[in-house]
Amino acid sequence: MSKTSGIQKITVSEHALERWFQRSATPGSDPALAWDDAIEIYGHCLEGDEVRYHALSETVLIRKTDTLVTVIAVTDAKWTVRIAVSHLDEMAM
């Protein structure tokens, strides 16, 4: 599990911000701060330079270069994403 992407400050695209408000369990919080608290996931089959899971908001956050480009609700995610997130629970045990 990694929380270090080498990105000092992530930019949130307009699209990602809209998706955050639509899909996050905590839409009043800041998606850039959620990114900082999120844990990188693997084996998700999503396109991006880095993908992280944020448990509190129940979302998957996708970064390309230094920009958060979209937000996916875990409940609506494809099965490969849900499996990647479930592996985090297994690792915590």
What letter string, H or E per element, gives the SSE order?
Answer: EHHEEEEH
Radius of gyration (CA) equals 12 Å
Q: How many domains comprise the coordinates?
A: 1
Query: Termini distance?
Result: 14 Å
**Rounded mean pLDDT score:** 90
Outline the low-pLDDT stretches. none
Report the strand count. Answer: 5
Strand order of the largest sheet: 1-5-4-3-2
Number of helices: 3
Helix content: 25-40%
Strand content: 15-25%
Any chance you could write out the topology, listing elements then pairs?
Blueprint: E1 11-12, H1 14-23, H2 31-37, E2 39-40, E3 50-54, E4 59-64, E5 67-73, H3 79-92
What would you say this structure looks like, in words?
- Residues 12-74 form the RelE toxin-related domain.
- The protein has 93 residues and is α+β, with helices and mostly antiparallel strands.
- The chain contains 3 helices and 5 strands; from the N terminus they run E-H-H-E-E-E-E-H.
- Strands 1-5-4-3-2 form a 5-stranded mixed sheet.
- Strand 4 (59-64) and strand 5 form a beta hairpin.
- The chain starts with 10 loop residues before the first strand and ends with a helix.
- The model has no long low-confidence stretch (mean pLDDT 90).
